[in-house]
Amino acid sequence: MKLHELKNVAGAVHRKKRVGCGEGSGHGKTSGVGGKGQKGRSGGSIRPGFEGGQMPLYRKLPHRGFNQFNFRTEPVIVNVGDLAALDAKVKDVNVTVLAEAGLIRKDEKYLKVLGDGEITRALKITAAKFSESAKAKIEKAGGQAIVA
């Protein structure tokens, strides 16, 4: 299949609604907007939470507290099995080596190594965190798990 052979599924494409083209079209006179009022005017959209001028609920309720959700730092996760797939001449593994290998993005700094998979060769791995199983597998293979 090639790009020029792609077709939409039947019913996916609708014809454009032609409004204001006379009463016979079914979308004449008010063009599907209805009668008078705020929603019948041009530019007459009402923002979410608007209650017709009444004090809206979100302003009546107290807003207390603070939350670190927007400022959290999530670790980028690499498994021990992924490290085993690295090039054979690599002995020291850190964030820059993993970025060059394409396992993580270049701007990542906070690395956590998890224990999924197996590793057979000795590697000196520098990361922010290690799971217990990852540390055990690395040390069993003769490597080092360095917390930086």
Task: Write a structural description.
This protein is α/β, with parallel strands linked by helices and 148 residues long. Helix content is 17%, strand content 14%. It is built from four helices and six strands, in the order H-E-H-E-H-E-E-E-H-E. A three-stranded parallel sheet has the order 1-3-5. The chain has a three-stranded parallel sheet with strand order 2-4-6. The radius of gyration is 30 Å and the shape is elongated. The mean pLDDT is 94.
User: Termini distance?
Assistant: 49 Å
Q: Largest beta sheet, briefly? A: 3 strands, parallel
Q: What is the typical, i.e. mean, pLDDT?
A: 94
Oligomer class: single chain
Number of helices: 4
How many β strands by DSSP? 6
* Spatial extent as radius of gyration: 30 Å
Share of residues in helices? 10-25%
Shape: elongated
Amount of beta strand: 5-15%
Summarize the helix and strand pattern as letters. HEHEHEEEHE
- In the predicted model, the low-confidence regions spanning at least 5 consecutive residues are none
Please give the order of strands in the largest beta sheet. Answer: 1-3-5
Structural class, from secondary structure content?
alpha/beta
